Structure formats: C-alpha cells, structure tokens
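Support request, priority: normal
Reporter: lab tech (M.K.)
Component: structure prediction queue

Hi team, I submitted a job for Aldehyde dehydrogenase (NAD) family protein from Shuttleworthella satelles DSM 14600 yesterday, and the status page still shows it as pending. I've pasted the exact input below so you can check whether something in the sequence is tripping the parser. The sequence length should be 462 residues. Please let me know if I need to resubmit or if it's stuck on your end.
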Amino acid sequence: MADEQLVQNVVREVVARMQISAPARGMHGVFSDMEEAIEAARTAQQTVRLLPMDQREKIIGAIRRKTRENAEILARMAVNETGMGNVGDKILKHLLVADKVPGTEDISTRAFSGDRGLTLIEMGPFGVIGAITPCTNPSETVLCNTIGMLAGGNTVVFNPHPQAIKTTLFTIQMVNEASLEAGGPDNIACTVDAPTLATSEIMMKSPHIKLLVATGGPGVVTAVLSSGKRAIGAGAGNPPALVDETADIRKAAEDIVNGCTFDNNLPCIAEKEIVAVDSIADELLHYMLTEQGCYQASEEELDRLTKAVMDEKGRLNRKAVGRSARKLLSMIGVEVDANIRCITFFGPKEHPLITTELMMPILGIVRVKDFAEGLETAAWLEHGNKHSAHIHSKNVDRITEYARRLDTTITVKNGPSYAALGFGGESYCTFTIASRTGEGLTSARSFIKSRHCVMTDSLCVR
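Reply from support: The job had stalled in the queue. We restarted it manually and it finished. Here are the results:
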C-alpha cells in the first residue's frame, strides 16, 4: 500500500509540474515554438550522425533503463491523463518497449565484389525526422520511435496528440536525460509544449524535415502521405479473428479475449471481432462466458451500447475509447461483477459494433457456415487496411490460404494478437505498424537510407 501511495504521489507531482510552461521549467527537448524545436533537433543531429554505433547503443541502453525504472509512472500518467487503458497492461507495454525494441543491431552493412572492385552498401540517417504520435499509446510510441531513429543516426521532432501532452512531455524529457547521462547530446527528441494542427503543418512543411512518420488514424496518415515528402504511415485496422472447427476452441477463447482486452483493446493489432464457423460458435461463446470473463449483451443492451459509444455517423465517443467493459456497461446502466472484462454478442457482419474499429473490449461474433465463408467475411471486415488478422485453426492449408487472402502486415496463428509484438511470440516490439506504406513493423532499419560506396579496380582479392 505504501508503494502504491508513493507512485500516486509521484504521478501527482509530475502532472502538477506539467501544468507549468515546460520551457520555463527548463525541460530538455521541449520548446514553445516548432521552428525552435526543429532547429534544436538539427543541431543535435550534427552530433548524433557522427557518434559511433557503440555510443548510440549506450544512449539507447540508458533509455531502456529509464523506461524500466519509470514504467509504472508512465503507465499511471497515461491512464490519468487520457482515461484510456489500464495501468497493469501499460506497465507491461513499457517493459516490452525496453526489452524488445531493436537498436543498432538492426542496422547492417552489405558488400559485394567482382573483377572491377568492391561495393559497400552502408545505411545512413535521413537527418531530422518529423513524427506524429497518438493518445492511445503516447509514451510507448515516443520511446520506440526514438530508439529506432537514434540507432540510425537521426534525431526526431514530435507533434504529439494534445490529449496526451503531459505524458509525452515527460517521456521526451526522460529520453533526453538518458542521452545526457550516457554522454550524448541534448535534444535528440524535441517537441512543443502546446501541439496543434498549426504546429503539425509547420513540421510537415519544414525543409529541414526529411522524413515524416505518422502513427494514428486515417486522417493524419493521409496528411503525411500528401505532404510531398517521404512518409511512413501507421494507420487504422479492424483485425478479425477467424476460428474454424479444427481449432482448440478453449484455447482460442482464452487467446482471443486476452488479446482483445489487453490495455482495454487500445493496440491497433488487437482482435476487434470474431468470425466463427457455425459448428463451433456456441462452444466458443460458452468458454468466453464461463472462463474468460465475457458478458453477453442482449439486443436491447446492444442498441443502447451502440448509441453510447458512437454517434449516428459512426464517429466514436472519445469517452468510451479504451475504457473497460465494466465502464462501458455502466454507461448504459448495466452493473456487472469485477471479473467481467469483455462484452460479446452474435451479430451480422454489418453491425456497427463489428464493422467499426472500436478500440474497446467489445467482441462481436459473426457466424459463418464454413471456412470458405469465414475467409471472405474476415477479408470484408478487415476493410483492405492490410493491417492485422488472426486465425485459430490446426489446418495448415487453411492458415496459409487465410494469410494469403487477407495479405495483412501481421497474421497471428493460434495465439493472442500481442504475440506479434514479442509478448509470448517470436517477434520484436514497435507501436508504429506501417501497413499502408509497406514498412510493416517499423524498427531502426525503417529510418535509414541506402548509400553505395564503390571502390573501382581495388580490394577484390579473390
């Protein structure tokens, strides 16, 4: 209890400090003017680009250490500021960032030789990168972007989501403190204390920003792709989870609900709906209700829930995004036990709570007669975002056909969605998943450019 009170006191102190003008407090990397932030990042990049790889890795190591040390504070700050997600899962996400975001080891040099000499293909930095970050994973996105970009010799200017500004400023301060403690420069990551659409426009149009990276909804991704600059866009998804009659149904229920409810369904890769073959659909629901803390909503409750979480035009209620199942049900006057963590129901694929990416622990189930219909239904629900999809089946041919048909950046087979980020699966972590522009799970190699170094008629010693 004492530790809990200590953390709460620290969070309150941090939040109170953030109410004061950040530059007035001398915060590292935080400026009142976007042009100043860009210039500071430019100056820092002149140092970063000359740092040897081992020095960059020392800075990254310090960022990892501080992330572990501050994981609970960052988690509580984000929940307190945005109202989204839950502290326990956010702590796990920060530890995942600290342990599984690739650093300089992700960058390699290639070489080939022939009768006329030797060519090295080296990877170099873009320079200053402009990044737009979301309110759903504010500190996690800043951390994984900074690690990857710094590994490649870049610095970064962030235009964060205003709803998560305090958490983001604290994270950027922490990143720069890590750099200074490891012997690196200040301002490896910069931002403004009052981000707006105007500051975003300045950043995107600046001649000093050579690469743009957007993590967020379709609007912000479209904006960076229309900028005329090289851009990486990590946009929306609506990941379906297909369950066929060959699957381990009990395990599928556990994996799907665990993935869906992780941080209250905020990760873009999380299961958003289920497509279940009719012969096992009732069994799947049974395990979800009896063992996995799901609540089956009635038709009347679904009508009220739909009106509570979105308007008539399908726009989401911000006060519902990332909230717990109990909170969502309480919004419509339904009180449930503490063990309820997910809301479920059977419905047609066109139901707004199924066809829309909600980022809430609501799992609609679409019945299909067989795998073939399930395949087409899942593809329709994914909306061509090419982001993420999941399948539970023991038929390898079906798994292969599913992955080819949906052609998503991520396909998780027989596991929870978060296995794709290295949590219980063989992968690495990132919170910028660029399905639209094709980079996939971004890492250091996403933020560098190729340089051919050609030596003629020498150094070929065959």
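The chain has two domains: 2-235+441-452, 240-427. The mean pLDDT is 93. Let us know if anything else looks off. Ticket resolved.
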